[in-house]
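[job 4417] fold queue: 2 targets
>>> target A
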Amino acid sequence: MKRLLEQSLRELVACNSVSSTQEHLDQSNRNMIDLLAQWFSELGWRIQILESPSATSVKKWNLLASIGPEEADQPFLFHGHTDTVPAQTNAWKDDPWRLRIQDGRWVGLGSADMKGFFAALRVSSKQLGLPLRHLKRRITLVASADEETTMNGMRSLLHHSALVGSFGVVVGEPDPADSCGSP
């Protein structure tokens, strides 16, 4: 599973999903949303891709992926954002969109905040198998846009029927105190 985790993270880091209120830096997150949709669809999750408001002319997207009984009330949520801050390329020794191992750590733009969370969730889901017939509660993955800038992605989902009345939520955002600093 470690190989799948590394490959998953490598593919996510390669997705340039920079969020910025400056038009010339802002990127769409659609490549990452499509990759997540493919992975979780292959694992039996139901997929919804929804356009999100954007602070620039660049189109942004949110993903809702659910598994378990559709009619079940109170889903359990996993939430993460798909964007990264702009890469300050002069601070990087190598290509920020290429995963590499440095001092025993996987390094690449967004590898800790948030792409590692999505890679781990993919591997966990694959390993567990999450048989639909045994789930009593729906599980929903929320992958939102523009957390690093405007929070427009999550704001647009606040009242979405798939999230209302949720039982609980795991937010994959790392603790800033655990940050390993600049690459």
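>>> target B
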Amino acid sequence: MGLIEPDWKISEHIRAFFTCRTHGCSAVPFDSLNLSNRVGDLDQSVEINRSLLDVPSEPKYLKQVHGVNCVPAHRAGKEVEADASFTRKRNEVLAVLVADCVPVLLASKNGSCVAAAHAGWRGLANGVLHRTVEAIGVSPLCAWIGPCIGPCHYLVKRDVFNRFPNRTGFREKSKNQWEMDLALIAADQLSNLGVEVFGGGFCTFCDVKRFYSYRRDGVTGRMGAFIWIE
């Protein structure tokens, strides 16, 4: 299974990884390690793909809605809308699914608490990362920013641009169009919250072999970011 592991300086008791799209059983256009059962893939294929994950317990998948709700892991599930979760329990696996949005994994440096957040432009504009850091409630923290769409392929118009007053992460392309760097905006917000930031530097749109991209392909699978305390 193709995995990317965070390159952060963190407690040895924290485990985390990000899945690539390879080495699963889903057919085109979800080929092949699709982890989402909300995109039109066969339920059986998703179940098999999820069973391939090397994790100590069933991951706490969220009903992601591009919001800012951050819940304790025991509340995660199909009925609770949330885009982030946190836990202080051992072997309780947090998860977020993405295919262009920013996956952010967070952990206290002493290994006492971890969190996972899904942040698209709406979540970043409305404060999902602030809510997640607030929910963790301890410091110092580290965060790892996983693969997301890069500014090279993410153009937005003035309605989105105006939601970010400090203008970090935008480059004007035309009168009403800007390149938006989601990873840079996430890193800037986290840094302003006192969080040490790692990761970034990936583009899901550019790397067809490793990553799903909703903006590139439309109907496609989802990758996952996972974190837990051993």
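[job 4417] complete. Note on B: The mean pLDDT is 96.
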